[in-house]
Amino acid sequence: MKHRLKAVSIFMLTFAYIISYYLLCSTPPYQNIVKGEILSTRSIILTNLVTASFVVFAYFHKKSIYKTIAIVCILFSSFAVLPHSKFLIGSGEIEKFIPTEITAIMMLGVIVFLMFALRFKKFEEYLKEWPLEGVEEREIHKILKEKIKFYSVFNILISGVCLFLIATGFKTFYENASASFVVFTAFLGLAVITGCIAFISKSIFFTK
């Protein structure tokens, strides 16, 4: 199970990084820095050197490399909102590389993949810690299987709700939605945020 958890967490983290890198390529500042050569060897090397510097810093300061890469992914993908900012739209130099709707879905994908990667990494650490506390291997595998199943279902449900909120958000933006529809969407979003906070708090304070 240890090797499977490691493989899945690395795959999820890699996929999140690829998506966030692609989102970074959609930003006008990045396009200006690389002079339009988004996928050139030079731009790819320079961008990944930035990531590598963060990883090396984390390694020498004994910080989590997984969390460091996750921070880089969030930074890269967060810049993708710039092409759709009201401060930039209308400028002749700005080119929308990715449509707004696709950008929102891709950013959601980055977050979901990072959540899976970091959680599976935590499960991998449990495999090292629990035997030292006297927990039997069979019991550890049983507990982790239940945790993986529950967390996967939770993430899938939350992702579905978030996709619905993205769709309704764009419907509200592009169409004249009724006030009741807007209020319903706002309450649903608030419920999702509250539920996530409660779930994360429970995971931190009431579970190992």
From TrEMBL:
Entry superkingdom: Bacteria
Membrane-traversing stretches: 7-24, 44-61, 68-85, 97-118, 148-167, 179-200
Keywords from the named record: Membrane, Transmembrane, Transmembrane helix
Name of the protein this chain belongs to: Uncharacterized protein
Phylogenetic classification of the source organism: Bacteria, Bacillati, Bacillota, Clostridia, Eubacteriales
